[in-house]
Amino acid sequence: MNYPFFKPGSYTFFTREAIRQGGLNYPKMLNVEPTNHCNFNCVMCSRRRSGRPLGFMSLDLFDAILADVRRCGKTIQWLTLHNDGEPLLHPDLAVMVHMAKSSGVVENVHFNTNGQLLTEDAAAALVQAGLDDITVSIDALTPETFARVKRAGDLATVAENTRQLMRVRKKLGRSNPWVRAKIIDMPLTAGEIDGFCRSWRHRVDEVQVQPIHNAGGGIALDSAPGAPDRYPCALPWYALAVNWNGTVSPCCVDLSGENIVGDLRRETLQAIFVRGLIRTYREKMLNGREAELSPCAGCNVWRNGVNIFKPLDHEERRQSHAA
């Protein structure tokens, strides 16, 4: 699936042209967290280090978020229904997808899942609700590696659930959602990546190999926060993350919710995005003061994005016109 607003190879970072076209008066991408509970304990996930309380977003709060967007006459280009947890643990996830798709203010609905709970009934409900895009984080080719990486569940169930989703989609005569099988490129999986790609290439719509990142310093990797080529992270200029309880973080790697920039139970998205504390993040990033921001100080996620303050080169201009 070609999403022209994403930087090639990324499903998080927009292109510079898309960010500039979006303006600065409303977010174009939202991470909305149905829950931060999870049924897995993946070795590369930093959620176990989070100090946030666990919970589930209410449908009333989710409806209020959509109403906020509608009231402002805006559109969310990419709604991701996950953040720190497993979305399929929310009993009304398919209802949330339907609410978003029928709202008239959300263009694309996506989420990541570990796939363990992607039963035939769950798959049918998501297809019928209108889900646009799903990434199944399988992360292994063999059961042995799966056990070391995921530390819960089993590969046979996840693999069959993923194949079953494709069958359900076909049975219902639908082209949605676009189904992506993903593996994280890290030392534990390095020897299985080629085999994983060959195994899944013709079973799903897309195979994704994602380099591991340090989740805002939550995973012990070389983050190089003071790298001489560091440029401002693009996320604060077009995205926000809404936690299950309505608090708003500047991005999806605010693991412990220690960088709250607003609360949708008391404020609007527009107020948070335009007048809220998020401005502090933008200002400090523009002045090379990321070290004063947590979790930005130890984050390497920014490297996957674009420098929106660098002039467009010829190839970027060509690609933006072609899109």
Radius of gyration: 19 Å
Structural class based on helices, strands and sheet pairing: alpha/beta
- What is the count of β-strands? 9
Residue stretches low in confidence (pLDDT < 50, at least 5 long) are 319-323
Order of helices and strands: HEHEHEHEHHEHEEEEHHH
Commentary on this structure:
With 323 residues, this protein is an alpha/beta fold. It contains ten helices and nine strands. Strand 1 (29-32), helix 2 and strand 2 form a beta-alpha-beta unit. Helix 3 packs parallel to helix 4 (120-129) and helix 4 packs across helix 6. The protein is globular.
Summarize the structure.
This protein has 323 residues and is an alpha/beta fold. It has helices at residues 16-22, 59-71, 93-102, 120-129, 143-150, 155-171, 193-200, 269-275, 278-286, 314-322; strands spanning 29-32, 78-80, 109-113, 133-137, 178-185, 206-211, 239-242, 247-249, 262-263.
Secondary structure blueprint with pairings:
Blueprint: H1 16-22, E1 29-32, H2 59-71, E2 78-80, H3 93-102, E3 109-113, H4 120-129, E4 133-137, H5 143-150, H6 155-171, E5 178-185, H7 193-200, E6 206-211, E7 239-242, E8 247-249, E9 262-263, H8 269-275, H9 278-286, H10 314-322
Parallel strand pairs: 1-2, 1-7, 2-3, 3-4, 4-5, 5-6
Antiparallel strand pairs: 7-8, 8-9
Key words describing this protein structure:
323 residues; alpha/beta; 9-stranded mixed β-sheet; 10 helices; 9 strands; disordered C terminus
